[in-house]
Amino acid sequence: MRSAPLGTAYRVAAWTAVFYLMTLPLLGPLRALWVAVAAFAIQAVVLFGKISPAHRERFLSVVGGRTHLASWLDSRPAWFRTAVPVAILAIVALSGLGMSPYTLDVATNAGIYVLLALGLNIVVGMAGLLVLGYIAFSAVGAYTYAILNTQMHLSFWLALPIGGALAACFGLLLGLPTLRLRGDYLAIVTLGFGEITRITLNNWNSVTNGPNGILGISPPSFFGFPFTQPKHYFYLVLVMVALTAFFSRRLERSRLGRAWVAMREDETAAESMGVPTLKLKLLAFTLSAFCGGVAGVVFASKQLFISPESFNFLESVMVLCMVVLGGMGSVPGVILGAVLLSFLPEVLRGAAEYRLIVFGAAMVLLMQYRPQGIWPSSRRFEEFRQEK
Amino acid sequence: MIPGGALLQQIVNGLTVGAVYALIALGYTMVYGIIELINFAHGEIYMIGAYVGTISAGVFLAAGLPVWASLVLAIATAAALTSLYGLSAERLAYRPLRKAGRLAPLISALGLSIFFQQYVFLAQGAKDKVFPAAITSGGFVLGSVRVAYIQVAIILVAAALMVSLQAFVGKTRMGRAMRCTAQDPVMASLVGVPVNRVIALTFVIGSALAAVAGVLVVMYYGKVNYLAGYAAGLKAFTAAVLGGIGNIPGAMLGGLFLGVVESLAAGYIGGEYKDVVAFVILVLVLIVRPQGLLGVRVPDKI
């Protein structure tokens, strides 16, 4: 970087002009001016403000640094690390007794998002493959339950594995041609798959009832005890979240999980050490699709009505945001991210239309300053630090 | 079965759309060729180009300029201003991540694409933006095929831009620097190629081409929506992969091919499944010939 003050001044002026001109047609002269002022101010602060390299270093290490709570917890004895999630689970379960039906409903939705995020975390966080149309798998699960239930009165408990398995089959079929290639293709192919699924659901009237969706799905029942109140669903979802989190955590430390890490970090090296990368990628992808399908079944059984609109691209993005924000590959992080992002719209009612633009900007900024997320796993933290 | 005349009509319509896909695909393929990044925000850049063109055409027409001059100026303005989006996107979202592995830039690109989409939504609203001048009416009949002047214009403009791009990359000093950087950025910087500037230029050119495509499309269809970038981006990416990603003539071929196939599919199968075709082609190409029609298979760098 040149340090000549004149050169710097020119550059600041040029970028300010760029931002003004760029936003002028879309925002109009006045609002574009605000953008330009903001652009100028940010540059001025960064360049001419009293920010020394040491300050900058310090800022980056604080923003990108360790999550103290996470590293403190990691250094506790094993019984303590087991006790904490159990205690949290117990607290959440008990507080469910005192929640209003509305809060229970929001919490149940958050739980479904946690299921989705944990599923996506297997493929994005653990195996390091970007999947973009993830919500399509839960559409497969949801429609499987909706159709089989309204046509053949299939019970919820049977639909869970069937919906999951069907979604997994789709995952397998989609993964086979694409996973042999570079990971980027997977991203775009799954993006396309998500869109195709939505279009098909919208147009295949004889089976999916098109844009009108499917009504009259029956709620699950447990040994003849029907689920009718929000709190029944809340506990159902809570149990499923606990199970999924437990398995994810076990998976992380297993032989399979370690093989995924090896593959994620250096595919060529892993391959040459005898790690069957194609099989592992397929497995991650299929397992993740299975979770998506199961979450879809739960979603359908809770809403009792589904339509293609529930499975649009932005839902996929939302789930990906949860994984990225929480910390890719970190089970507690992903749960935290999902809970935060699903409660956020309830808190920020007034700013609802700004939600997505903030998500977009947050993804860009997170990747630069805190790619490991708010609650990173200790291993992932080290990896991101090395990549820098 | 549709008769032969209708078949030709579908092919002409398909070539028009295909020329547009090709223009957008060039941006994908150039960026991928040079930094191996799928620039998800590229579809959004195209959509922004369409908006900028529409708005500036309105301004020029209101200023009393003749229609043809307004259109030409609108295209030029859109290309110039939209290229700034590409420039700042590269500087702010991609350059800091150039050494950060593979997942981070992809997620950054996705975030940027959502950001752009929502930015246009917040600035201009959810309603369709209608192009201020009706241009679709004029045309001529050739045999049994009806060709609109705007279709001819789209194909001609696209062809001219592609030829000049090919000449630029193949013949000029800057073009050579681009090819050099695409082969090996570190080596290129060692022999004095200003790598950062070359990469920024690649984004600028790609964005300008996408903006031109955007204005041409909004003239053709008469309106644009803030969600338009998503599907167009997906299809243009398919076109780029079809032709061989990183390969400029391949992107043109892939775009035209995809446009025609899609248009035929809309005629024979039904319009609602038109968007499925692109995706099926993408998966088929990845299975049968992952390097694309004109691409060469490159082993992964270790």
Number of helices of chain A: 17
Helix content of chain A: over 70%
Q: How far is the first residue's CA from the last residue's CA of chain A?
A: 19 Å
CATH class of the largest domain in chain A: Mainly Alpha
CATH class category name of chain B:
Mainly Alpha
Structure description:
The complex is a heterodimer of chains A (388) and B (302). By secondary structure, chain A is mostly helical. Chain A contains 17 helices and two strands. Chain A has two domains: 5-49; 72-387, ABC transporter involved in vitamin B12 uptake, BtuC. In chain A, β1 (221-222) and β2 form a beta hairpin. The radius of gyration of chain A is 23 Å and the shape is globular. The relative contact order of chain A is 0.13. Chain B has a single domain (4-288), classed as ABC transporter involved in vitamin B12 uptake, BtuC (Orthogonal Bundle). Helices cover 74% and strands 4% of the residues of chain B. A two-stranded antiparallel sheet of chain B has the order 1-4. Chain B has a two-stranded antiparallel ribbon with strand order 2-3. In chain B, β2 (139-142) and β3 form a beta hairpin. In chain B, α9 packs parallel to α11 and α10 crosses α11. The longest helix of chain B has 32 residues, at 4-35. Chains A and B meet through α1, α7, α8, α14 and α16 of A and α2, α3, α4, α9 and α11 of B.
List keywords for this structure.
heterodimer, A: 388 residues, two-stranded antiparallel ribbon, 17 helices, 2 strands, globular, B: 302 residues, mainly alpha, two-stranded antiparallel sheet, 4 strands
